[in-house]
Design a protein that fits this description.
Elements (H helix, E strand, L loop, with lengths): L1 H47 L1 E7 L2 E7 L3 H8 L3 E7 L5 E5 L12 E3 L4 E5 L4 E5 L5 E3 L1 E7 L4 H6 L5 E7 L1
Antiparallel strand pairs: 1-2, 1-10, 2-9, 3-4, 3-10, 4-7, 5-8, 6-7, 6-9
C-alpha cells in the first residue's frame, strides 16, 4: 500500500508541475503578445507624427507635429515662413496664420506647456511656448520641440522674425 501511495503522489506532483509549467508558458506568451502590441502602438504613433525643422535666425530646431486634425492641416501647408513676435508678457512667440485650422476631435483648451507648439484658434495663430502658461480655452497643442536648445533660441529670437518651418 505504501508503494502505491508513493506512486500516486509522484504522479500527482508531476501532473501539477506540468500544469504550472504550461500556465507559465501561456502567461509568457500573453505578456510577449501584450508587449508587442504596446510596442506597435508606440511605433505607429511615432510614424504618424510629422517631423519638422524650425529655422530661426540660422539655428535649426528639430520638432514634430502630432496626429491631431489641426496638426495634419498645418503639415499640408509646409514648407512655410511665418513672422513670429512676442505676445504680451507671456512665455511664448506667436505668428498670425490668417486662416483657421480644423480642431475636430481636439480638447477645447490646454495649458501652454514648455516646448509645445500650439494653435491659438480664437486669433488663428501658431504659438511656440518657451515657458509654461495657464489653461486657456482655444489653445490646441499640435506639436513639440525635440531639440534641447529650443527654449533659449525661441526666448531670445527677437520680434518680427521670419521663421521657416519645413518637413524633414
Amino acid at each position: 500500500m505504501k508503494i502505491l501511495e508513493k506512486l500516486l503522489l509522484t504522479i500527482a506532483a508531476v501532473t501539477l508541475l506540468a500544469g504550472c509549467s504550461q500556465n507559465k508558458t501561456d502567461n509568457s506568451k500573453a505578456t510577449k503578445s501584450t508587449n508587442e502590441r504596446t510596442s506597435q502602438v508606440t511605433t505607429a504613433q511615432k510614424e504618424t507624427q510629422t517631423k519638422i525643422t524650425v529655422s530661426i535666425n540660422g539655428t535649426e530646431l528639430k520638432a514634430h507635429l502630432n496626429n491631431s486634425s489641426a496638426a495634419k492641416a498645418f503639415a499640408k501647408e509646409l514648407p512655410t515662413t511665418l513672422s513670429f513676435r512676442d505676445y504680451a508678457d507671456m512665455p511664448e512667440k506667436v505668428a498670425d496664420l490668417n486662416h483657421s485650422l480644423p480642431t475636430k476631435g481636439m480638447p477645447s483648451g490646454h495649458e501652454g506647456t514648455r516646448g509645445a507648439i500650439g494653435y491659438w484658434s480664437p486669433q488663428q495663430r501658431i504659438v511656440f511656448h518657451w515657458g509654461t502658461e495657464d489653461y486657456y480655452e482655444g489653445i490646441h497643442i499640435i506639436g513639440k520641440f525635440d531639440s534641447n536648445n529650443y527654449r533659449n533660441v525661441i526666448r531670445n529670437m527677437g520680434n518680427n522674425v521670419n521663421v521657416r518651418i519645413t518637413k524633414e
